[in-house]
């Protein structure tokens, strides 16, 4: 636009002449031409050699104009439009002023000369390009020095934004990195949690490796045709995105939904959105990459962008997709009559743990004792569900079937942290594996009976004579939450230090309302926190742990 101010008076004269010469337009196109030329002076001029972001309102067209440098009969130019969301419509219109109006004819401009001779109209307008869609599209053409160009953009779906790049300098480097002749991404390997990709090098990487790098976008929804389309999609999911993939590797503040990982010269940004994770990985100039930490049996979409670090402009390879392999079925552990198995479940991976049992009796009983966390239990018999629920504490399932029926138990943690559960199966209903339990497993302490060196606790018993053992542990103030959260309710006294044992006693009462016992623990330190535990033992010797109780002795007496 070096000669724009030279052109401006000339085109003002053009509009003035048009307004007087077209007194009674004979056609609709003549009236439209007059209106469009007049609107030029109330519109925006498109900058040359610079990427421009344009915001579009639904159903409202937006126009930009440009005039190219005078001095040559033909000037090459290129226009690249990148939709950042929904499909748009855009077109390029050329206005050619007549020779008589300009005061001279351009050498070789036959169209202008013909119009001048015919005197049918002082100027002409023609649509030289139009497009509708959401792909990145580039138009390359040659301009007459007597032409004025208008770009018109329209979004019919919703408000959106686009980027437009006009260039008339064909001798300098490209703003947008170049794509290879074959811009496809090849999937060279898939695993349960990995996918390996490769693509042909961009010519820009080979020419300017210090200014160009590749970035990969991974998501579970669909491919993206441009980098700004991907960023718009992530923003529309309700999160704020940092500037263009943070490709410059400059520091910035991440949102709570984002995780940034920088290792081995690779930058990874994980955006947690409603439709899943969107990963952004920048790997320098390597054109082969293995994407790690994917979920098994999941379809992923992969887009590679070659990015100019100096301008943040990018070009997109043709996206691809791949499905990770199904995770192999874990080897099932066999359950045996009367023998318990304690299983630790990974809460982060949400994996099922499977146990199998082949019935040797028609009636059997599964027992689940929750040790830590929360666990979901699914029991099937010959492939059909017979029990499905989240368990807490102690849970029995009494089932009937046929000899040699196959039972499968699937266990899964319902928490983010690890959970654990003890599982047992027995055909003996008359001989329970666990003791008869009271209505509550809570331990109560009496504040008024606390002294500087003793506390009194109480707990419920049953109608069945059983053994109860009391243990104590001295803890600090900052250990209370950790101790209560880390309690393994399946562990017995064997996991405790001998010095923590206080006493063991037997008791019961045929009247369940009076099956309560108390115990005063002496020899404690003043103003000190203690963790108390009670273990109940039944006929089988398997213990049940009451809920731990923290009590503090008085500081002064």
UniProtKB/TrEMBL annotation:
Name the Gene Ontology biological process terms.
Answer: nervous system development
From the UniProt annotation, give the residues forming the signal peptide.
1-24
Q: Which GO terms describe its cellular component?
A: extracellular region
Q: Which UniProt keywords apply?
A: Glycoprotein, Neurogenesis, Repeat, Secreted, Signal
Instruction: Tell me one GO molecular function of this protein.
Output: heparin binding
Task: Give the Fibronectin type-III domain ranges.
Answer: 177-314, 435-543
**Where's it found, cell-wise?**
Secreted
Function in brief: Secretory protein that plays a role in various cellular processes. Acts as a chemorepellent acting on gonadotropin-releasing hormone (GnRH) expressing neurons regulating their migration to the hypothalamus. Also promotes neuron migration, growth and survival as well as neurite outgrowth and is involved in the development of the olfactory system. May also act through the regulation of growth factors activity and downstream signaling. Also regulates extracellular matrix assembly and cell adhesiveness.
| Protein name, entry field | Protein NDNF
């Amino acid at each position: 636009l070096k000669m724009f101010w030279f052109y401006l008076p000339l085109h003002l004269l053009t509009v003035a002449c048009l307004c007087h010469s077209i007194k009674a337009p004979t056609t609709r196109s003549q009236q439209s031409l007059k209106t469009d030329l007049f609107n030029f002076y109330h519109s925006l001029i498109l900058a040359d050699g610079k990427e421009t972001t344009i915001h579009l309102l639904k159903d409202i067209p937006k126009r930009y104009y440009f005039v190219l440098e005078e001095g040559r009969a033909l000037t090459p130019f290129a226009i690249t439009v990148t939709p950042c969301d929904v499909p748009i419509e855009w077109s390029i219109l050329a206005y050619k002023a007549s020779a008589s109006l300009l005061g001279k004819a351009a050498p070789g401009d036959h169209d202008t000369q013909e119009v001048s001779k015919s005197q049918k109209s002082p100027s002409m307008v023609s649509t030289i390009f139009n497009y509708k869609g959401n792909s990145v599209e580039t138009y390359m053409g040659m301009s007459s020095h007597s032409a004025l160009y208008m770009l018109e953009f329209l979004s019919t779906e919703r408000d959106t934004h686009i980027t437009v790049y006009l260039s008339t300098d064909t001798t300098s480097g490209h703003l947008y990195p170049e794509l290879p002749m074959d811009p496809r991404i090849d999937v060279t390997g898939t695993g349960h949690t990995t996918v390996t990709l490769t693509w042909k090098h961009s010519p820009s990487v080979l020419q300017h490796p210090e200014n160009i790098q590749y970035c990969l976008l991974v998501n579970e929804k669909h491919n993206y045709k441009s980098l700004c389309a991907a960023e718009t999609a992530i923003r529309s999911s309700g999160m704020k995105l940092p500037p263009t993939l943070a490709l410059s590797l400059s520091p910035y503040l991440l949102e709570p939904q984002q995780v940034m990982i920088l290792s081995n010269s690779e930058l990874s940004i994980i955006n947690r959105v409603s439709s899943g994770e969107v990963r952004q990985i920048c790997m320098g100039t390597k054109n082969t990459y293995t994407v790690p930490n994917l979920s098994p049996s999941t379809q992923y979409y992969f887009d590679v962008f070659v990015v100019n670090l100096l301008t943040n402009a990018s070009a997109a390879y043709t996206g691809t997709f791949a499905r990770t392999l199904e995770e192999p079925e874990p080897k099932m552990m066999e359950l045996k009559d009367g023998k318990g198995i304690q299983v630790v479940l990974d809460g982060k991976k949400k994996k099922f743990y499977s146990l199998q049992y082949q019935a040797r009796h028609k009636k059997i009983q599964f027992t689940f004792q929750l040790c830590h966390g929360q666990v979901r239990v699914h029991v099937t018999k010959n492939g059909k569900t017979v029990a499905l629920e989240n368990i807490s504490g102690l849970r029995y399932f009494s089932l009937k079937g046929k000899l040699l029926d196959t039972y499968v138990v699937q266990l899964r943690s319902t928490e983010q942290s690890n959970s654990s559960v003890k599982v047992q199966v027995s055909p003996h209903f008359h001989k329970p594996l666990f003791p008869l339990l009271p209505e509550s497993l809570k331990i109560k302490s009496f504040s008024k009976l606390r002294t500087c060196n003793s506390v009194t606790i109480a707990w419920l018993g049953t109608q069945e004579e059983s053994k109860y053992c009391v243990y104590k542990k001295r803890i600090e103030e900052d250990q209370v939450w950790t101790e209560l959260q880390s309690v393994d309710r399946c562990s017995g006294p064997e996991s405790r230090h001998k010095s923590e044992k206080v006493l063991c006693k037997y008791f019961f009462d045929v009247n369940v309302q009076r099956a309560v016992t108390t115990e005063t623990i002496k020899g404690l330190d003043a103003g000190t926190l203690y963790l108390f535990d009670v273990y109940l033992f039944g006929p089988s010797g398997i213990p049940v742990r009451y809920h731990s109780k923290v009590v503090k002795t008085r500081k002064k007496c």
